[in-house]
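Dissemination and training. As part of the outreach component of the grant, students in the summer workshop were shown how a complex can be specified as a set of sequence lines and then modelled as a single object. The example used during the hands-on session is reproduced here so that future cohorts can follow it. Participants entered these lines:
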Amino acid sequence: MHEHSLVRSLLTQVQQIALLNGSNEVTDIEVEVGPLSGIESSLVESAFTTLRMGTCAETSKLTVRHVPLIVACQDCGTETELECFRFRCSECQSGSVKVIQGEIFRLLTVTLAESKPSEPTMADAVTSATTEEKRSGS
Amino acid sequence: MSPQTIRVNRDIQKEQKERAANLREHLSRQGTLVINLVSSPGAGKTALLEATAKHLRGKHRIAVLVGDLATDRDAQRLEPFVPVRQLTTGGACHLEIDLVQRGLDQLPNEQYDFLFIENVGNLVCPASHDLAEHVRVVLLSTTEGDDKPAKYPKMFRTSELLIITKSDLLPHVPFSIPNAISDAKQVRDGIETLTVGALQGEGIAEWCEWLQNKRQEIVSTTA
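and obtained this result:
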């Protein structure tokens, strides 16, 4: 089970992206997996639930998008969507095919929350109320 | 400012893959062929390496990095023949490029002709990790099912050579070499195959010749 190390890597990249964009809260993360990514999406989700704690993605939602396995024939150029792991061109039956989709674990999008420095807390509300009072009083 | 969606569209392993590619290029320039040996536990990776080390001794400089979850027993077995460093993964089911780099830094600083990486016995996770190898070689022993290539397609898809091991046990087990090869060719048409019996030395000369030819390819491409 190597999903833990991949999700750790995912979260590091998500945090860098948030930081670069001046945000400290991620709301949504979208990833892509395919039949040859070597990833079990339920294990990705459980690793994510554990590892996001204490990061800017702590409350974010992870969406795993599944894409089919597609190969391109190196002989005739036809693209074939494989239903099983029989790597053959559907047109000319050549075995010389290259995977063009479905073997990468990919980070698609990261959605950042509205860029306030932080959610206003009760303490912040009290402070601003006090400031308002002082202003109106003066 | 409203919520902002950033399109990244990037391979999560991009950085690791780039590091592996850089290390591979560096080792190519030194004339070192890197071989990532993968298989299920007990398929005979260490036995193959013992036989290989004996066969190549005196002719080539070789070194081994061996991955293991908890012990250094494989390293102990290989120590009499070659410089070897144990990569203990602490329970992880596969090796990653960082660990390989660290192991390489601990080996005597020489230019090796062959660097073998004996991966953790596992036909799933190691398939997804580039360890800077030039060739990935998958072992399948005759005591396993000959349907392994169909069950673990990614591993066989990403391997250049399939070695069927423990050939001496063939008379006693219901393993079909043609079936195994035919299944492997379904996932990788051009996969090469060899059969070895490491304890008796069967097929070891052919395997070592295969390695020497592969190394020549690397050396002539880099030169």
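Chain B has one domain: 16-222. Students were then asked to discuss how this feature might be tested experimentally.
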